[in-house]
Amino acid sequence: MDHEKAYEGLTPAVRAAYLERIGVPDPGAPSAAGLARLQEAHLRAVPFENLSVHLGEPIVLDPAALVAKVVDRRRGGFCYELNGAFAELLSSLGYRVSLLAARVFDGERPGPPFDHLALRVDLDEPWLVDVGFGRFTRLPVRLDGRDGQSDPHGTALLRPHGEHGDLDVLLDGVPQYRIGRRPYPLADFVPTCWWHATSPKSPFARGATCSVLTADGGRTTLNGGTHLVRTAPDGTRTEEQLTEAAALSAYREHFGIALDRLPGAASA
Predict the structure, then answer these.
(1) Is 227 noted as a catalytic residue in this protein?
(2) Which of 42, 54, 116, 196 is flagged as catalytic?
(3) Would you state the pLDDT for residue 264?
(4) Which of 42, 54, 115, 130 is catalytic?
(5) What share of the chain in percent tops pLDDT 90?
(6) Residues forming a β-bridge with 230
(7) What is the mean pLDDT of the chain?
(8) Taking a C-beta distance cutoff of 8 angstroms, is the pair 102, 24 a contact?
(9) For the chain, percent helix, then strand, then coil, each to nearest 5?
(10) Nearby residues of 42 by Cβ (< 8 Å), 6 or more positions away
(11) Catalytic one among 54, 79, 168, 196?
(12) How many CB atoms lie under 10 A from the CB of residue 261?
């Protein structure tokens, strides 16, 4: 993609390539059912990963660069990248999308502003859409709903907080993040994205992770570059410590990511 030209959104060819990347035919006019199909397909096809942090790759919060990483380079990313790219796909399909800032809970304490990027999609009612939080809901969540909302991954609950309209998002009673109602441009997430990529206090800088939803509703995760964890839909886990060669093969097999070295390993 030519970054010298003004970015005007996805071309029809790039949109078609993105849909092919997640294995979904053109969903037609925007709808709640179509949005749910797109979110679940994205979670199954595009891994949540922070490998760029540990491979010395720059993280560029530019719409064209984010889409190119997912579509052309067949990679994933963390929240800013995944939800940033998904917002471009949804917008190109006619959905009305806003970027929302959230603070991720560490126990009962929320993190800093812009700690997480999630999406608001407006149809007949507003929806919370998130393909960049690792294990979270598989389907969109009604932003105006205040009762528990059933999802294949549990029960989502949105609980009002404070006087500014913030919402605490819980899954099975556990606080996930506190989300604001105000929309922001992608550029406003750049400083916290940089902090997450560079600070030794950031969980993303401490170790590599790569995780994807499996076809049966479980998860496959590689932690630390070589620790393979398979989680079944019922929550049972199997774990295996891999050799370097086996880990590189696992990145290709489970995530479609071709690496010439493990994240964190020195380049030749």
Answers:
(1) no
(2) 116
(3) 79
(4) 130
(5) 86
(6) 220, 238
(7) 93
(8) no
(9) 30, 30, 40
(10) 22, 82, 86, 131
(11) 79
(12) 13
